[in-house]
Design a protein that fits this description.
Blueprint lengths: L3 H6 L4 E6 L1 H6 L1 H10 L2 E4 L5 H4 L9 H12 L3 E8 L6 H7 L3 H19 L3 E8 L16 E2 L2 E2 L2 H6 L3 H12 L4 E6 L7 H19 L6 E4 L2 E3 L6 H13 L3 E10 L8 H21 L4 E4 L36 H11 L2
The structure holds ligand G3I.
EC number: 3.2.1.8
Pfam families: Glyco_hydro_10 (PF00331)
Keywords: Carbohydrate metabolism, Glycosidase, Hydrolase, Polysaccharide degradation, Signal, Xylan degradation
Length: 344
């Protein structure tokens, strides 16, 4: 039957997912799921600094080209993730930017000088800066991060000061005026005071950037949802309304669901709760003008949730936070997404 790509397109939306070049090449079932369900692809790791510039001045576009080749062969679109982030910074880069702001600026400029021309016209939309906002205190699931004001204390912040966010967006826009430039972050969907504070920090950052005429076009909500966290639609709706009133587009960029510590008995119960949460969050985003929804993978068997020690379940169960189960069958979460697009 029609995949999510077609259902989304029929209502003026775009559905997609993160893909891994190694799985695309090695697993026909995986590639088949991608072509059946996804219109927009985002490389899970191939467009990050560690993959693109593993050594100073040494660029490796191989893995990203594999994803781009797959997308082109199947008439799919590609988005870029991510140019500036504090994770996956090669040691040489950490050393380099620590030499001081002039060196840090030169290294960032050289990266964008190489990556942006090399990836056009395949990539028209980039997560320019990822996760620059510090996590507030008080979330049992996400550690508070050291902060300088609202900003996460990262090597980029230490090297260039708070202006690194503005610099990254300006350098990207100078190199390609047609790119859509996105600020991407997580923990922005929940109904807790923690999430409310993080949303306020994001709004302060976006306002500062826009008041300084920094070329930001969109906000990416990663939407790595936590079932243990309450959801209050009116809080997310109000936040997204404010972001839209600032003239920004909104995307859901990395949707998946981490289930609670107390799982209900049985898969049906778990899948139903996940589907209900996805429908509420994605439905709210679409109501507030979001037109692009990406999940962070399609099948539970490929999810970072089942391999990253920070998030995988400790009870031997695996999360069921993606639209397809480990055998590739569509789950209630798949139906929830289909209903969200149909309801538009
Ligand atoms: O970089 C190597 C590459 O050189 C090598 O050829 C390849 C072979 O498998 O592995 C690559 O390494 C790992 C890569 O995943 C591919 O599996 C990296 O060591 C590993 O750190 C990387 O993990 C990714 C992680 O981001 C860090 O980049 C996860 O797959 C990916 O799911 C995760 O995604 C992040 C988003 O970017 C931001 N939001 C949170 C999300 C989950 O953490």
């Amino acid at each position: 039957a029609e995949g999510l790509a077609g259902l989304a397109r029929a209502t003026g939306c775009t559905f997609g997912t993160a893909v891994d070049s190694l799985r695309l090449a090695a697993d026909a079932g995986y590639a088949g799921q991608v072509t059946a369900e996804a219109q927009l692809l985002v490389p899970e790791w191939e467009a990050k600094w560690a993959a693109l510039q593993p050594q100073p001045g040494v660029f490796d576009f191989g893995p990203l080209s594999a994803v781009a080749g797959f997308a082109q062969a199947h008439g799919r679109q590609l988005r870029g993730h991510t140019l500036v982030w504090h994770t996956g910074m090669p040691p040489w880069l950490l050393d380099g930017i620590a030499e001081g702001p002039a060196r840090a600026r030169a290294l960032l400029t050289a990266h964008l000088d190489a990556v942006l021309p090399a990836t056009r016209p395949a990539i028209r939309d980039w997560d320019v800066v990822n996760e620059a906002i510090a996590n507030p205190e008080g979330n049992p699931f996400t550690a508070r991060t050291p902060a300088v004001g609202d900003l996460r204390d990262t090597p980029w912040l230490r090297a260039l000061g708070p202006g690194y966010v503005e610099l990254a967006f300006r350098l990207a826009r100078e190199r390609d005026r047609s790119l859509r430039l996105t600020y991407n972050d997580y923990g922005l969907e929940g109904g807790t005071p923690w999430a409310e504070e993080k949303r306020q920090r994001v709004l302060r950052l976006l306002r500062r950037l826009l008041e300084a005429q920094v070329p930001v076009d969109a906000l990416g909500l990663q939407a790595h949802l936590l079932m243990d966290e309450p959801f209050r639609p009116e809080l997310l709706a109000g936040f997204l309304r404010t972001v839209r009133e600032m003239g920004l587009a909104v995307l859901v960029t990395e949707l998946d669901v981490r289930e609670g510590r107390q799982l209900p008995a049985g898969l049906a119960g778990r899948d139903a709760l996940v589907a209900e949460r996805v429908k509420a969050v994605v439905g709210t985003a679409l109501e507030q003008g979001c037109r692009t929804v990406l999940t962070w993978g399609l099948s539970d068997k490929d999810s970072w949730l089942t391999r990253d020690p920070d998030v995988m379940r400790k009870d031997g169960e695996s999360h069921r936070g993606l639209p397809l189960d480990a055998e590739g069958n569509r789950k209630p979460m798949w139906q929830a997404l289909a209903q969200c697009f149909a309801a538009r």
